[in-house]
Amino acid sequence: MQPQIVLLKEGTDTSQGKPQLVSNINACQSIVDAVRTTLGPRGMDKLIVDAHGKATISNDGATIMKLLEIIHPAAKTLVDIAKSQDAEVGDGTTSVVLLAGEFLKQVKPFVEEGVHPRVIIKAIRKALQLCMEKINDMAVQIVEQSKDQQRALLEKCAATAMSSKLIHQQKDFFSRIVVDAVLSLDELLPLNMIGIKKVTGGSLEESQLVSGVAFKKTFSYAGFEMAPKSYDNCKIALLNIELELKAERDNAEIRVDNVKEYQKVVDAEWQILYNKLAKIHESGANVVLSKLPIGDVATQYFADRDIFCAGRVPEEDLKRTMKACGGAVMTTANDIKPNVLGLCKHFEERQVGGERFNLFQGCPNAKTSTLILRGGAEQFLEETERSLHDAIMIVRRTIKHDSVVAGGGAIEMELSKLLRDYSRTIAGKEQLLIAAIAKGLEIIPRQLCDNAGFDATNILNKLRQKHAQGGQWFGVDINKEDISDNYEQCVWEPSIIKINALTAAAEAACMILSVDETIKSPKAGEPPMAGGGMGMGRGMGRPM
Ligand code: ADP
Ligand code: MG
User: Mean per-residue pLDDT for 82-92?
Assistant: First the structure.
């Protein structure tokens, strides 16, 4: 079973004009239906099994959309906006798809009645512009605060991002870790300086944050037991050199007719290896990391000289070590001088659950940290990683762009009210269109209610009333099956998420509305023109 929504190639609509538009809108609707139920703290997760039988459990819109093999050209737009939301701000991926789908759904009757798509697009753009102004207006600026206050705020944002995920039970625990991890970075907050490692087993609360670089101990040969496992002020050689004796047949073919000759070849090999090892030893390094294998001879050699070594270190870990500790990755043993060695205050190899980890702490150059996640099943850990990614992105965003709005549908209800009020002041088709978009925005609180099993109509009525009376931060209260002031409840989201989500959703809707014909070129391998009589080319002269 392929996890795809059946929008098969054969069924692709090739009509033009209105029917084409309507069919595109319908296709988007079925995508929206696929992710609809995942929204919010009470959203459900999706189990997706791909063609190779790999199962993924996720609540993240972008991840789900990526895994669904969507082939409908218009519906793919939605996948793209989810991905871009993920890359740009990291959270709000389900919301953006829902909003785009709902905008389209609300304007569909107008398309069917023959309103020109350009008119609709113009109205959407106008509505978007009004929303942007309002969000910027309403967003609560986090003006220069004390460190403690800033921290509390960041933790709240992280907790809101995580409250819809599988790990929501542990969100307080993880929001502390996430904020620690992000605050340990330098001003640019580079995402790749936070490493996430997963060790199955143990409970989620055993997860820990290591300030510095950490990675799983690599495969090692006999001899490593004797190497020291902990150093202070160590010098690290980062290599891309193979320190292993090759089986002779791998390298070349040599014809020898006696044992002596053969011995010479072997001796030469050993000599080359020993020369390399000696150079590394001379450089003064006491930890040797290599991307390529380090064999048993080398391991023994290093152990005898009190040097720790690890081969087959994954490239990203090697790079992160290099960024954090300085130095350079060397591809030849000839120029290993003290100035290309990385430095760190403390190195040790430590047991974490069933795995051993190499930890580098007190790195002088870049600020970096590594999250070591513990937990039951593999899929569970993967989803935890994705959820933490959302939370990390949110914290980074909030630090960079420090203003927040209330979540839980509060901001959407307020924008909806704004548009409805505005629509009453204008005349013509635009009035109806803007009102339709206002209705579209209500999808977020409505879906939050639906997913929690609440009576959406009832709660939305209450919300409309509150907002009309000026309660601008009122949204769905997931715990009480009621409405509440979500700003006071600390359901906060960075305003940039909402800005980005609305812009992307409106743009996607406009794009789908502006397409009125799909022309598909034949697939590669198929005859270029079936049934045509021109196959032979013109210059042949004589008919066949
Ligand atoms: P997305 O992929 O769009 O981030 P989520 O499943 O994370 O989707 O759901 C996010 C929505 O859930 C947002 O609209 C957010 O305001 C809302 N939300 C998060 N936490 C709460 C809460 N505690 N109470 C009410 N709404 C919440
Ligand atoms: Mg989210």
Answer: 87
